[in-house]
Write a structure and sequence with these properties.
- The complex is a heterodimer of chains A (539) and B (364).
- Chain A is α+β, with helices and mostly antiparallel strands and 539 residues long.
- Chain A has 4 domains: 127 residues, Uridine Diphospho-n-acetylenolpyruvylglucosamine Reductase, domain 2; 118 residues, 2-Layer Sandwich (Uridine Diphospho-n-acetylenolpyruvylglucosamine Reductase, domain 3), CATH 3.30.465; 110 residues, 2-Layer Sandwich (Alpha-Beta Plaits); 141 residues, 2-Layer Sandwich (Alpha-Beta Plaits), CATH 3.30.70.
- In chain A, 37% of the residues lie in helices and 17% in strands.
- Chain A contains 20 helices and 18 strands.
- In chain A, helix 11 packs antiparallel against helix 16, helix 12 packs across helix 15 and helix 16 packs antiparallel against helix 17.
- The longest helix of chain A is centred in the last third of the chain and has 18 residues.
- Chain A is globular, with a radius of gyration of 23 Å.
- The relative contact order of chain A is 0.13.
- Chain B folds into 3 domains: 174 residues, 2-Layer Sandwich (Uridine Diphospho-n-acetylenolpyruvylglucosamine Reductase, domain 3), CATH 3.30.465; 75 residues, 2-Layer Sandwich (Alpha-Beta Plaits), CATH 3.30.70; 68 residues, Alpha-Beta Plaits.
- With 364 residues, chain B is α+β, with helices and mostly antiparallel strands.
- Chain B has an 8-stranded antiparallel β-sheet, sandwiched between helices. In chain B, strands 3-4-8-6-7 form a 5-stranded antiparallel β-sheet.
- Chains A and B meet through strand 9, helix 10, helix 11, helix 13 and helix 18 of A and strand 7, helix 6, strand 9, helix 8 and helix 12 of B.
């Protein structure tokens, strides 16, 4: 959920997409979050002299870190650390004990050794664009900002790999590879700002992952440190490594298993041509069925996205993408490859879409028009801010064939909760981003919005899906994890964490809810049918 | 999966009993890959009865099958609907199972374009060492809820638990294909493969052996045709090409046939996994190069230490696949820090060391 994500007058797409709302005008903070000390992940309850002891702890940690870091790389005064109080999920804020900004591997190692020795929680942070609160600070922990690890070490055009530091922006990799006719395939919408280290932490996707895979499929090696400062390497520059496939579990582990400082990514040859079909449908279920038909015909489009009428209206007003505003839904279906390949595939796609009942087809004539088609899709989030003071973005995945059923369920929920919802889907992957529109200024709307959101996630699980497709669990979906996984499964996750980080110092309190929290969530759920103060940590 | 399922219930019972008795179990499917890796300790835990395709919806590009399902059966069902396992798992013999395929994590010639077994695992239902049945991942391609435990099972050789069921991403079979043949030496072959890899071509397999390079193209008809024009070579007759790639995939090609006599005179089969762009590796013996240079098979009599050093020079590793003497370990040794994590994970999934003890590394 992205709460309080939008300001009323977004300045530009990046800012709103990234939700870098640090000016403190996020309207929808909960009481608990607004008090400044929530979520107190893993903290002991705060008692009378807690403030004094926190100050003492801060002084001790700063002193210890000052022995291994230049003073300028240590921030602890409120005015210096305020920018680190949240990531892209602005509704959750906490004041970190200390923020450190190392520049070298040796410094990262020294920080980890120091913190490990003192039992200080460590929250690694990349560009801070995450949407699930994965980089939310811990009141008694440090923020390990890796922003200065922003160098591209090597682009090897022969090996089709790039070795980059973790803070390098996703888009910067493709820019560096472009002169060689290569690029880095995963393209989350935030790609101009988000870092590769963050992409590794979240196993980031994007609009092209149906054909080109997720971060995991495009990363060969991750270098970094274990929690105690021991250097470690997962994967290799070969296609596999000896032993268990630890890279697979480290990618997507949301900073809870190790600290990443360097990533070797696979680059792939840039397709010579890409063309996109915009297909209109009078009926949203027909659009859902068309998605299945394309796959059934053996076509794997480079991108396959669906937007409902409310969404296309919002984005078209925002970027004038030339969408068919009469359609109940539009599909964007992209083909890429050699010119011959694309020509062949577009013909096949058109035939399938026509047979599936498309009321109108438009094929991009040139690159400019293709980008225009995509500009609407990529601006779905900021455009939603144009039609509503606030919105909450969901991120569940369901089997594709359930799409129509899910859409009907969401329509019913709009009535149940008295709120509007606009829909944009990575249809090819079954990954939904329903955006629930609300006004935090109106009494009860935030609460109804949260229930709406929880209902979508639980319906997704019931339909055979998952509560998060690409944004991660962070702290935002901890309760939903209770719905998706059994107590034994969650205990197994916690045991995996312990294998890497026995003292649970890396990003504690994220991703895997404690058994108590789930017990309480279940209880409240059953007894009240609604959940008050869902943000409060429950340990 | 339902724990009330009788076959599953019996497996759980055996695991719980073994745990209580401090006994060890060797998870057994078709037993077609027992020659690979280290021998494992323990009484067999037969999972072949846990068979059958649980769900298959071609438009979802996902199939879910129970561990004991025969790989051949699964592939036949996919083929009926024009789909396939894109990573081409090797079938060393008849009887190989889906569970064994995932546990071994071995991929065939298409690995280089399609990805590995691990890349196609979407979800796994696991029976851990505490006798608990746990599901991780699911049936959807995008899923970041919790750690990706299901993919960790690919290539874990059963040391973390019994794979009961797996959901796999499948893909449509390619519309067209061609195999081109070139006569060239190793160095030239590696140069060509390196260059082609950086071009938008539709290469889905390559193999070099004794002065002959074979390159397989798959994709849209026009793409295959244009790649043929670009890279030249002589086209093989389709039936011959298919049979030949099958012999590479399943290792029935002569190169892989080490007889008793070869083993007796100290010859071993090694798999070197190295960066594809790496220059020629010079060892005494014979070599078979796949995956655009990233997988180099060697038949050699030299010392394990020398082979491993050669592989490690550029960050690769070497697996001793067939040998009369595996005392050097089947798999490349791990760094201390990685071994620490391995021990931690073994403890996390199988605290009493019930499953496949020693199959991957001694002590695990």
């Amino acid at each position: 959920m992205m709460r309080g994500a939008m300001r009323r007058k977004p300045r530009d797409a990046l800012e709103t997409n990234m939700n870098t709302s640090l000016q403190g005008d996020a309207p929808a903070q909960r009481d608990a979050a607004a008090s400044g000390d929530a979520p107190t992940l893993g903290d002991a309850p705060v008692h009378g002299d807690a403030a004094a002891s926190r100050e003492q702890r801060q002084a001790d940690v700063v002193a210890a870190l000052a022995r291994v870091l230049p003073r300028a790389a240590i921030l602890f005064r409120n005015e210096d650390t305020v920018a680190y109080e949240c990531d892209g999920l602005t509704a959750y804020r906490a004041s970190p004990l200390v923020v450190v900004l190392p520049e070298t591997d040796a410094q990262v190692q020294a920080i980890l050794r120091t913190c490990h020795g003192m039992g200080v929680p460590i929250i690694a942070r990349g560009a801070g664009t995450g949407l699930s609160g994965g980089a939310t600070p811990h009141r008694l922990g440090i923020i390990l900002s890796l922003a200065k690890f922003n160098k591209i070490r090597n682009v090897d055009a022969e090996a089709c790999t790039a070795v980059v530091q973790c803070g390098v922006r996703n888009a910067a990799i493709s820019e560096a590879a472009a002169p060689f006719g290569l690029y880095y395939a995963p393209d989350p919408s935030s790609q101009i700002a988000c870092s590769i280290g963050g992409n590794v932490a979240e196993n980031a996707g994007g609009v092209h992952c149906l054909k080109y895979g997720l971060t995991l499929h495009n990363v060969l090696r991750v270098r970094g440190f274990m929690v105690d400062g021991e250097p470690v390497e997962f994967g290799s520059e070969a296609l596999d490594a000896a032993g268990l496939d630890l890279l697979a579990v480290v990618v997507g582990s949301e900073g809870m298993l190790a600290v990443t400082t360097e990533v070797t990514v696979r680059l792939i040859p840039k397709p010579q041509v890409a063309r996109c079909i915009m297909a209109s449908f009078d009926d949203i279920e027909a659009a859902g069925a068309a998605v299945a038909s394309i796959i059934a015909q053996g076509i794997i489009p480079a991108g396959l996205e669906l937007m409902d009428r409310a969404m296309t209206a919002a984005v078209d007003a925002f970027v004038h993408a030339g969408y068919d505003l009469r359609a109940a839904a539009i599909l964007l279906c992209e083909s890429d490859g050699t010119a011959e390949e694309v020509a062949e595939e577009i013909v096949r796609m058109e035939a399938v879409l026509n047979a599936a009942g498309a009321s109108r087809l438009e094929v991009s004539r040139d690159e400019a028009q293709r980008l225009k088609f995509w500009s609407g899709r990529k601006n779905a989030f900021p455009a939603s801010g144009g039609i509503s003071p606030d919105y909450m973005c969901m991120d569940s995945t369901i089997p594709r064939r359930r799409l129509a059923k899910m859409l009907r369920a969401i329509q019913q929920m709009e009535i149940t909760y008295g709120l509007r919802c606009v829909n944009v889907f990575h249809a090819g992957d079954g990954n939904l981003h329903p955006l629930i529109l609300f006004d935090a200024g109106q009494p009860d709307e935030l609460r109804r919005c949260e229930r709406f959101g929880a209902d979508i996630l639980e319906t997704s699980v019931r339909l055979g899906g998952t509560v998060t497709g690409e944004h991660g669990v962070g702290i935002e979906k901890l309760n939903s994890m209770c719905v998706q996984f059994s107590p034994a499964e969650r205990a197994q996750f916690l045991a995996v964490k312990q294998a890497f980080d026995p003292l649970c110092l890396l990003n504690p309190g994220k991703v895997i809810p404690t058994l108590n929290r789930c017990a309480e969530y279940g209880k409240m759920h059953v007894h009240h049918g609604m959940l008050p103060f869902a943000a409060l940590p429950r340990f | 999966m339902d724990e009330r399922d009788q076959v599953l219930a019996s497996l759980i019972e055996q695991v719980v009993a073994a745990r209580a008795a401090h006994a060890r179990l060797e998870i057994r499917g078709g037993g077609t890959k027992r020659f690979f890796g280290e021998p494992s300790e323990g009484e067999p835990l037969d999972v072949t009865a846990l068979a059958g395709i649980s769900s298959y919806e071609p438009t979802e590009l996902v199939v879910t099958a129970r561990a004991g399902t025969l790989l051949a059966d699964l592939e036949a069902v996919l083929e009926e609907r024009g789909q396939c396992l894109p990573f081409e798992p090797p079938r060393f013999a008849r009887g190989g199972t889906v569970g064994g395929m995932v546990a071994a994590g071995l991929s065939g010639p298409a690995r280089v374009s399609a990805g590995s077994v691990r890349d196609h695992v979407l979800g796994v239902t696991l029976l851990n060492g505490r006798g608990e049945v746990l599901s991780f991942g699911g049936q959807v391609a995008k899923n970041v809820a919790g750690y990706d435990v299901s993919r960790l099972m690919a290539g874990a050789w059963g040391i973390l638990g019994v794979i009961c069921e797996a959901s796999l991403k499948v893909l449509p079979r390619a519309l067209a294909g061609a195999t081109l043949h070139f006569d060239c030496d190793e160095q030239r072959a590696l140069e060509c493969l390196r260059y082609w890899a950086s071009q938008p071509l539709s290469i889905s397999g390559s193999a070099w052996y004794e002065g002959q390079l074979r390159v397989r193209l798959t994709g849209a008809l026009t793409a295959v045709r244009s790649t043929c024009e670009k890279i030249g070579g002589t086209a093989l007759v389709p039936e011959e090409a298919q049979a030949w790639w099958r012999s590479v995939r399943d290792q029935t090609h002569d190169f892989f046939a080490l007889g008793e006599a070869d083993l007796a005179r100290g010859e071993s089969l090694w798999r070197l996994s190295v960066p594809a762009a790496r220059a020629a590796i010079n060892l005494p013996g014979r070599q078979f190069i796949e995956w655009g240079g990233a997988q180099r098979w060697w038949r050699t009599t030299i010392d394990a230490g020398e082979v491993r050093a050669a592989a490690a020079r550029d960050g690769g590793h070497a697996t001793l696949v067939r040998s009369s003497d595996k005392s050097a370990g089947a798999f490349s040794p791990l760094s201390d820090v990685l071994m620490r994590v391995h021990r931690g994970l073994k403890l996390a999934f199988d605290p009493d060391g019930v499953f496949n003890r020693g199959r991957l590394y001694a002590g695990l």
